[in-house]
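User: Assemble these into one structure.

Assistant: Restating your components, then the assembled model:
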Amino acid sequence: MTVGYFYPTAENTGFYPRAYFEGYTLRGVSPAFSVAQTGPRHDNIVLPQSYDLAGRLYIPIPHEHGLMGVLMTQLLNHGSRQTDVFLKSLKEREGITLETNGYADALVVSINGPAKAAVSWPALIEQYLTLPLRNPPDQFSIQREHLLHELNIQRDQPSIQLNEKMMTLYFGENQEDSRSTSESIEALGLVEVNQVTRYYQNLLGSLSAPAALFVHPQSVSDIVPPYQNQGRGVQSKTVSPGSRIEPGHVGPVKVPNQSVNQSLLQWLIRAPKVTDPKYPAFMVLMQLMEDTGLIHQTLRTEAGLIYGSMTEYINQNPQHPVYRIQFAVDFDKTPEALKLFQQLLSRVEKGQLKEEQVKKAKEKLRLDIASHWQTAQDILDLNQSRLAAGMRAFSLAQWLEIIDRVSFSEVKALCKDIFSSKTGRTACGVLAPQFVLDRLPTQ
Amino acid sequence: VKVTSHFRPSQSRRAPVFGLNQSSSKPLSLQYEVVGPLGYPLSLYRFPNGFQVVLENRANAPVSSLRVFMNTGSIIEDAMSGSVSSLYPQSGFKPGATHLLEHVLYTHNQADRRLNGIADQLDKIGQFNAHTTPEMVDHEMTCEPSQLRPALSVMTKAVLSPVFDGSGISQEKRNVNNEVAMRHHSAESGLQDRAFQASTGRALFQTGGRPEDIETITPRDLAALYKETYQPEKMALVVSGDLSRVNLTEMLTDIEASFGRLKNSKNQSYDNEVSLKTQFIHAQPVVQTVYDSRLSYCNLMLSFPAPSYRDKVARLAFYVVANYLTDPVYGILKPALERSGNVINQSVAFNPSKKSGTLDIEIHAPLQSAPSWMTLQVLQTLALLKTQPIPREVFEGIKKTLTLQYTVLAQRTDKNTLWLGEELLKSGSLSFYLACPELLQRLTPEDVRRALCHFIQENTYTATVGLPSVDPGFAYKEGASR
């Protein structure tokens, strides 16, 4: 059993530091975005064998305000003496845990506890969200110092270094999506507690549109989350223009690093939004590529070059999601792995897939989703991106039905679209010592 | 994020289940049938050769899981060169062989000679994986409920009909080396290795296997290791899922015809009771400093003696302690460390093994922080817990949290098969699993205080300090160092 406290990392939570506050110059101009633009929505999913009851409330924030979200998280979890007393009392009396996590595009309030206390949850969440945030400035400084140290550690990690270079390559310099950890550190150093509390009050005032999902046993009736309808909301001044790279394949961008024991290879690929009708086919495609799929088959089983791969759907900017594929390979095998993977992408783009492979990927995906249907937390994880995108949660039957409906031709068409040198946008990068990079082809 | 990976309780009552009972004419013996803590019927069978089977029936579960366990892991291997410890006897098994063997079982076997044929078959049925740890190896499979019997059939063949020849082994040597290289990317993994070695006398990297050791392993080595370790008396099968979707009698007949007919080897190169040990020295801290230029902060890893799997009450007490130290609401370690204003984060992990255990505390702090000061804060916090019981209300809250964590963990069939198997083989019975809620309910602050007094002794710990470079200003100034 490991017990820890909030520990944001780019790899694990999708957290990607972003800053927004008065005095900091945001780049670009775009139509205003308001968190109050959609109506309230909530869902309840019944899990008959559930022993716990879990819920999440999503309070959307413009994705470039992610760093503000992290600071608000600190205040909501340790904001004042009243916060401490309230959370402690909840835990002692009811066994309920209530906490907030800051994501790139939302504050996510999570509640977890025994099912019998469910009826009181909406009121508890409302009380929690409206507790006074009177965090003393010195306490806030300590919390900010912690975040700065976290970011400083992240900055030095090879994988973060590669991620930042790739996001810069993909979205261009001086964009919200490519802001570096160093820039976030600089921005964070200037934030005052009053700016955070003011931002929070405005955000809270716009709570006409939190998305909420509660998972509970059948004995509990539907739970309706609290809403607030006062305040002016928060406005975004920027919207990312999306990928700055031209259609086609870019790279490999070479990132020198002397400290790694293997090369890190990464690809960023334009991906459909969660709301896109092609998204179910994309889920099948991800399954087709990962686990024991095509990457495993080509680079591990056949070539013996890698152990495993990491794939990730990054939708910190919901308007411009990207698909990230990364794996590590020995220095002397780097050119071979790069070539083999490019060949794999080319084959997939040309539709050189077997119907049997897609069928197997669908079966694996069905199994994966069914596995998630055993605990409340897993169900919440599965539906999180849908709720954050303003859609309703799916039941297990709905998930399985939508996967079943994905056809072989849809997957092939999607491959042709996103991997194509004409319509797709794919960037490649390699992080390795200089002598390895020197042996790679130039861009 | 997906990474392909190989490494990695209410009063029970009797209830009739499955229609099989002790009067069965089959040689397997039903040890007991109970309703488990989550309300699912649970049965334990034992064959005359010692092989054990746990079946848990979960009506309407969307997936079924099975795991085959082997009750010895890398701990039976000779220590890898440079890390010889007097704690563990030499067995003649080469370092890394257990992990390589785990991989090789999935290449091909007597029933399917195609290279990777077994993996192909399993892949068509569901999701499979295997894990090697110092004390245990497990082979797991999750599938749709109707696929449970075919899944068990292929997994049985993988585990019981291996073929040790050149092609499969050389392929898996590459995979093992790639895996180990991938897992050792960070400075933290090197520190964890050193910290584990300080407290157990065994390198953490031993389990994965280093390329130079893996290279020397021959098919004959693997065959010898397999013959002596995959013994029925040391193995168990755990199944959890909707068993109404399979013909249980036929499935048990399959198990009897395979695992039930295995014979135990009479000669063994190693002690049956071999397990991880700890090497703490009473009242003498063991402190080491590791320099790694990749670190940009101070990483302090402290290990203290802790209960084993078999110390049931003390084990629960240490779960409470781990929670009390860093709980986001109650946590008492964080405020103590934050008095310096600079600690970045801390984590507490209680790691019980078969016959020993460690309480591991890891602290990340800026470079200007003093590891000795942080160690002192931890020691004072633990000393405080030994003298002042946890306040009753807080204690009850932690128990509620742990109860919830327990039920959520057990709700997933794949996680639950792991827990059941580890409990059965590491602690020797399912009694802790079955009685966990009741034991937790009965646990008192005084039990926790007593457990702490028993295990946590003054200045008995190991400390591993990770720093980026040799600088006298960062040196560890407290306690004896060796």
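Chain A touches chain B through 75 residues (CB under 8 Å).
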